[in-house]
Each structure stands twice: as C-alpha cells, then as structure tokens.
Amino acid sequence: MFDVKKGFTRRTAIGSALGSAALAVTIPGLAHTPGRKPNFLFIMADDLGYADLSCYGRQEYRTPVLDSLAAQGMKFTHGYANSAVCSATRVGLITGRYQYRIAAGLEEPIGRPGIGLDPAHPTLPSLLKQQGYHTALVGKWHLGGLPDFGPLKSGYDEFWGNRGGGVDYFHHGIVPDVTDLWDGDVRIDEVGYYTDMLANRSIEFLDARAQEPDKPWLLSLHFTAPHWPWQGPNDQAESDRLANLEEPLGGLAIAHYDGGSMDTYAEMVTSLDANIGRVLARLAELGMEQDTVVVFTSDNGGERFAHNWPFTGIKTDLLEGGIRVPFIVKWPGLTAPGSESDTPVLSMDFLPTFLHAAGGAPHPDYPSDGMDLRPALMGAPTPERTLFWRFWNKDQKATRRGRYKYLKINDYEYLFDIVADPLERGNLINRMPEKFAELKAAHDTWNADMLSDPNAASFGWGPQYLADHYGWND
C-alpha cells in the first residue's frame, strides 16, 4: 500500500508555426542514423494530472521511468492539452488544428452515435504515411465508431485497443457482457489487466518493426490509465463487483462514483509507469532508441484522485488544473538531457513538429494551428503566441498570451497572471482593464472562425457527482 496520509506537498509551478525551410539550416541531425527519418513513439495517458508524476512534484509514490525520460530529454512546465476533456483533445492532436474547426471536435466528449472524425480529413498518421511511415495506434481511439469512423479509416495501418472512452481494466468494456477491445476492425476477447495488455501489444509492434529497420514508424500508444474505473492490477474483485451492480450511482457502473482511493490511484499510475518502462526497454534492446523520438503527455487535466497542484480545477474546467498537463520530449540529437522549458505548448503542436522532421508538411487545405516545437526543444527562444480554449459546459472561455490569461465561467470573467498566480485567485480585471479587454477581444475574434453546434454534448461536474462542486451551475 502507498502512504497517502501525509497529504500533498505544495510546490510552486516552474515558472505561429515556423516554416520547415527556415528550420533546415538551424536544426541538427534529427536521428542517430544518418539520412534516416526518425521514428515517433507518442505516449498519452488518460486524465493524468499535472503533478501526478514525481518529476512534476508527486510525493506519495515514485514514477522512475518517466522521471528518467524527463532526465534524458526536455520537460515542459507550461504544457497544455487542446481541451479539458478527452476526445476533443484527441481531435486537436491527430489533426494539428483547433478541434473547434471540425465537427467531431465540438463534442465534449464524443458519445452520440454517428459522430466521429471524418476519414477525409488529413491526420498525423495519414500524412506520415505519405512520407513512408508505418503507423499504428495501440490503446484508446474515442473518435467515433464503426462503420463510419475508426483508426484504420484515418491513417493508421494497425489498430489494437478500445474505440470508446473508458473501459473496465479486466473485462475491457463499458458494460460487462460486451467488450470494447479490437484488433483492427475485429472485436476480440482476451484476458488481462488492460495497461499490461497495451504494453504487450506495443512490444509486439516494436519487434515487428525491427524486421524492417529502414522503414520509419509512428506508434501512438494511448493508455486509458489512470481514467476510471479505479482498478489497479490486483483489483479483479472490484471489476466483478461493478459488473454486477444493478443500479450504479450516476447510472454507469464503470464511472465508479462509489469507489476509488488514493492508494488505488497510485497503483494505477505506477503500473502505467512500469509498463512504459517495459516498452522503452524493448526499444533499447532492439537498437532503435537513438532513432526514436519519445513523447509523453496527457489528454487533459486530472480527475477525482489526481494531483493538479499548483493549479485549481480538474478535467472539464478551463482553470489551469483542467488543461495543464505533463509534457516530456526525448529527441536524440535535439533535446539536451535534463532540460526544461517554460514555452507554452499544446497537443496540436506535434503534427507540424513531426511532419517537418519527417520531410513533410500539413495539408495546404487543412493548415495546422500548431507550432513546430523543434526550436523550443533546442532551448531557442520562440515567438510569443496566443492560445485559445472554449468549453460549452458552464460557457467557459480562455485565452493565454504571455503570462496573462483571460477566463470566463458562466457569467463571470477574470484576468490572471498565471506565472505569479498559478492558483488563479487574484482577479486583475479592474487593475488591468486594457489587458483584460485585449485578451477578451482576441478570443471573440478567434471564436468567430470556429464552428458551433448547440446540440453538441458537453459534460461538466456538478454536485450530483462531486461534493467539492457544490453550488456549481449544472
């Protein structure tokens, strides 16, 4: 068991896309093997809080594998998810664009039938395939179901994982009698703890790729951990209990409103860390480590048992705790070991970054809103940029420019200096009216170019779910 009774240790936060042609003369070799395009191993956790890794401040347990990855590469302290909820961020990630430009990205999250990522839209895997890459998704998709949508329709050569959101870690479905586990477009039924299974499949992928050493690859390894249900590797009995609930609290058993603990959450995160270690060890054993860019991040801020300190807010909030995430990149030949960056970066930045490194570019009809991160990864200064978010639930809006952030929740508006005040407590709206007006106007201008759908789903926490949200408007 993990000792969580001492409480949290409070720590302060460490406090325009560039063209590939301009970068060509300034960026050193992108892979160890001369003339070879880099492989990309993109690892995403699900609902992991900003400070849930010990290298970001967690004290109750250790995450030695991800700590080591940060020590070998660059740790971003101002890394953001495109959204405060899973599928919207995943739309931004795979398209390299603000998700609000795309119908599927308006869902927060996707849950209605017939909604998904249009297969005609260029994606990171489809564009990398044009550059000669073999592409695979292992883990969570959550961008629409068959027959109209799926990973194999959006650029991946291989898929092994779940199509929806959270699944039980032992019976691998939303409901116990139907699995959401797929090998390609074929539903399968296998036995095991899901986090272990995703690592196993990723190792199989690496073994297969080693047979074609000259062909570059993208592996999107999208774990569901530590998303609910709250089940560690030894919690088969809890899985069985949830499967037999006749009237679960909240209406969905695996949402697990009647369970979970800090100990269980620690077990889920440390299992995640250990399984990532297995994958990275196999990468090294196969001699591919120096040819592979490794990224680790989360799809949004943490949920019920996560540690989002020094921020307030959780998943579904545009407070920093709902959108600030761990963001680690190890890029051989590019990142200095043990380096840190306070450059604001976003999920959608990986598409232009990976494509430019691979010799490609975003599709001209679908220009990326992201930034090529390679200068930041080298420690070079980057132009100031403005980042935008919105979230239909509670009519939330946010703009970040420099150290200042405009925030709207329902009918209330705020201006924060999030460098000096990461808790977002001191509202500067009256002290800095010009800055407030500037950022609010910038959001209005940006939002005018985004899509809108009043029927889109948007989930938010209320007092019926979480006691600490008592008094929030539903």
UniProtKB/TrEMBL annotation:
Gene Ontology MF, one: metal ion binding
tRNA-binding as UniProt keyword: no
Residue stretches making up the Sulfatase N-terminal domain: 38-359
Keywords attached to this entry: Calcium, Hydrolase, Metal-binding, Transferase
Protein family: Belongs to the sulfatase family.
Top-level taxon of origin: Bacteria
Name of the featured protein: Sulfatase-like hydrolase/transferase
Taxonomic source organism: Alteraurantiacibacter aestuarii
PROSITE patterns referenced in this protein's UniProt entry, alphabetically: SULFATASE_2
Record's keyword annotation contains Transferase: yes
Pfam families (UniProt xref): Sulfatase
